[in-house]
Write a structure and sequence with these properties.
- This protein is of the alpha/beta class and 272 residues long.
- The protein is 55% helix and 7% strand.
- Strand 3 and strand 4 form a beta hairpin.
- Helix 1 packs antiparallel against helix 2, helix 7 packs across helix 8 and helix 8 crosses helix 12.
- The longest helix has 18 residues.
- The relative contact order is 0.10.
Length: 272
């Protein structure tokens, strides 16, 4: 597998900007965008879907001093080794060929982890701009590895399929890193999990009538951030998907069996 450390080119852009070597967008293109165009344009189009003018505007608002923590983390962490070790763990549980390539990049409000296609191949992206510690990187990688596996079969469409998709990713993460807490597998804070458990019945009553929905509004169930008034809690869809898949796998002895495809298909057929 290949690991692409685009973050290093981003820091070269930051250094050039701090040194006053030119205009922000020109330096961004020279040091970061042009050498990594295929991956960065794929990230922008698939993860953000905003006009290019927005990209330019965000680059021109960059302040080099805001990236000192990122510089420390990148300098002190062997990102390539972390990616290789995580993918190796995942391959032992859920073989995937070819292995997904991994891109460590720095964006502007990009997801912390995401599956996307680069040159027609599914890959894993890790957005480092909000990272405060390297501790979550292996869990993000394992989570997105599961999404890559699923995307190569087919893309989930309705809400029910998306719940299974997220629950499957949490299940793989827990299998790959059993020493980590359930909250970490869910990519949540412990307090969030407590709230989810307390209100799980109410959450299901709100969600069940919409399991066949393909509306974009359902995406809010899976996002980080503060929900609008009256909306479901942040990442409620991830929690409900985990509960759905965990209960299904428990009935099957807690195993991925010979093929995870059977788990995915059967879990979807059992959607409430």
């Amino acid at each position: 597998m290949r690991v692409h450390l685009l973050c290093q080119d981003f820091l070269r852009f930051i250094d050039a900007l701090a040194a006053g070597e030119g205009e922000a967008w020109d330096l961004h293109c020279e040091h970061y965008l042009t050498p990594n165009r295929a991956a960065l344009e794929a990230w922008w189009e698939q993860c953000l879907g905003l006009p290019t003018a927005t990209w330019v505007e965000r680059v021109r608002r960059v302040r080099p001093e805001e990236y000192e923590l990122l510089r420390e983390i990148v300098g002190a962490t062997d990102l390539a080794a972390a990616a290789e070790a995580t993918v190796r763990r995942c391959q032992e549980i859920l073989p995937l060929s070819p292995e997904p390539e991994v891109y460590f990049l720095v964006g502007f409000f990009s997801p912390d982890g995401f599956a996307f296609t680069v040159d027609g191949q599914w890959a894993i992206g890790i957005g480092l701009e909000r990272l405060t510690s390297p501790r979550m990187i292996p869990l993000l990688l394992a989570h997105e590895y599961a999404h890559c596996y699923r995307r190569r079969l087919r893309h989930p469409r309705c809400l029910g399929e998306r719940l299974v998709d997220e629950g499957f990713a949490v299940a793989l993460t827990a299998r790959a890193f059993p020493e980590r807490s359930q909250a970490e597998h869910l990519l949540m804070q412990p307090g969030q999990v407590v709230v989810m458990r307390e209100y799980e019945g109410k959450l299901w009553r709100r969600v069940r009538p919409h399991m066949d929905s393909e509306e974009e509004a359902a995406s809010a169930l899976f996002r980080h951030g503060r929900p609008r008034e009256g909306a479901l809690p942040s990442r409620a869809g991830v929690y409900l998907g985990w509960r759905l898949v965990a209960e299904f796998m428990a009935r099957r002895g807690g195993s991925f069996d010979a093929s995870a495809q059977s788990v995915l298909a059967a879990a979807e057929s059992a959607l409430p």
